What does this fold into?
Amino acid sequence: MLQTTIRRLQTSLKRWVLLTIAVGTFMALWGASPAIAADLDAGKRIFSANCAACHAGGNNVVAREKNLKKEALEQFEMNSLEAIQTQVTKGKGMMPAFGNKLSADDITNVASYVLDQAEKGW
It folds into this structure.
């Protein structure tokens, strides 16, 4: 009876390992991006509450050329989740830092929202 239970556990464990490998392979092949993993609805709310005053519609009322459109993000090397997270956290130039105001998850969500909107053309 003990051997039967052990065999069942081994079979269950093997299935779990295979399922984990299959999901990992699927994610790697389909290129799951951080923007998909983040909560874009939360990012939109955070953006509306904290960023839209200066960046409505992906624009920049302070420095027009440094907007949040795809081309500008690429030009200024801000077209990655990490770059935007750093900018939001630490601030730069006229942009204030939000690292003490927003949680790490909030910053990830808003950065993902910005990248998603840039891809869609705002």
Remarks:
- The helical segments are 2-30, 34-37, 40-50, 52-55, 70-75, 81-90, 104-120.
- The chain has two domains: 1-32, 35-120.
- The chain is about 65% helix and 0% strand.
- Residues 31-35 have pLDDT under 50 and may be disordered.
